[in-house]
Amino acid sequence: MIASRVLGFAIVISSPIGWLGAAPVPVAVVNPSFETPELAIPPGTSFQSLKDAKALPGNWRAIPDTSGVTAGGWGNIPGASDGRQFFFGASSQYGGKDGKWKFRLWQSVGPVEENAEYSLAVDLRPNTGSKGDDPACVLITADAPEGAVLGGKFHRTPENPKAEDFKLIPGQWVSVSARFNSAEHPDLVGRMVRLVVGGEELLVDNVRFTKDTAKGANPPAPAAAAGASWISDLADGQRIARSSGRRILVLFANRSAEGPRYFEDKVVGAPQVSKVLGQRYVAVRLDLSEPENQRIAERLGIFRAGVASIYDSQGNFVRRLDRALPPSEMVRELDY
Question: Which pTM value belongs to this model?
């Protein structure tokens, strides 16, 4: 056994090949960024609803039909996380008066191979005007309506209103991932599974699905073209950094305090800063209002929000950023 010290945590690796092996293999997802067909409507005017059969070609399905596809500029949203277009989950409830979800989007993929770990990653963003407290989920399920959940992440869902496996940050795209291992579901080998996103007032983009036959598969990296996609799980960030060679920026956040909120929105969240983070860093956001994240921060020597720390791809501390610098100066701090 080999012990590796990463970001202050001892991680035991069964073999040095465990995370230096081949990268996860992409599994085909049809129209993963909703770029086809290219919308003819001018950005900023409307969106193409599912009432038009051409709105979601290929294997995508969604309800209700008031959901659809739009492009950057609509609803004061500057752009997609990948490409130009993205999916918009409407707030109109389906399933009658007692329907569970405001919208649900899914696609069937496969077939499942034996002894493989599968990872689904999706970029999410609250719709304009949302405070980020709406329900959302990212799931891998059996290929059937209301199919059994094989792996998933949940945010204030109807079934569990207190669940917060990830944070939805107003004005920002975040990357959310879910996984399942086919070794734990031998009955699914050779069959299809379903990739599902559900919620309310939610934007969806850049769907990635990978498989890894090696133990300890790495999650897919977040999108970087349009800026940082924030990850809320430090362990995920560590694995992405090791596999990609990128530095890690860990933001210690707290939306309830004015200073940390300014640091997150106006400094780290400035467009030119976000662009550098997306191109060169793995961006991890730890909400210090959560007790577990407070304990992680303290082990890293951080005792307040409104601070960011930079680590290299192996988890070695590089520098701390704790001043509300103008965005141009913050870019210079990141681009050393």
Answer: 0.58
Task: Specify if 287 maps to a domain.
Answer: yes
Residue type, 267: V
253/233 same-domain check: yes
Q: Are 202 and 125 in contact (CB under 8 A)?
A: yes
Sheet holding 193-199, edge to edge: 61-63, 103-109, 193-199, 136-142, 149-155
| Spatial distance between the Cα atoms of 275 and 270, rounded to a whole number of angstroms | 9
Residue 334 lies in a domain: yes
In a domain, 252, yes or no: yes
Helix (H, G, I), strand (E, B) or coil at 314: coil
- Both tokens of 28, joined, read 């085909």
Q: Cβ–Cβ contacts within 10 Å for residue 13, how many?
A: 16
Q: Are residues 326 and 206 part of one domain? A: no
Q: Is 31 left (phi over 0), alpha (psi -120 to 50) or beta?
A: left
pLDDT digit string, tens, across residues 263-309: 998 899 888 898 889 888 989 999 998 888 898 998 888 999 999 99
Find the domain containing 285 and state its range: 227-336
Cβ burial of 325 (10 Å; 0-12, 13-18, 19+) is middle
Per-10-residue mean pLDDT of the chain, 336 residues long, equals 35 27 66 81 61 64 80 67 83 47 84 89 87 88 86 80 83 88 86 91 90 53 54 84 85 90 90 88 90 89 92 88 88 82
SS (H, E, C) 215-244: CCCCCCCCCCCCCCCEECCHHHHHHHHHHH
For the four alpha carbons of 156, 160, 163 and 166, in that order, the dihedral sign comes to: negative
Q: Report the number of distinct structural domains present in the chain.
A: 2
3-20: pLDDT as tens digits:
333 444 332 222 222 222
Check: CB of residue 305 under 8 Å from CB of residue 287. no
Nearest to 135 by CA among 126, 148, 144, 143: 126
* φ/ψ of residue 157, rounded to 5: -75, 160
Domain boundary among 215, 248, 278: 215
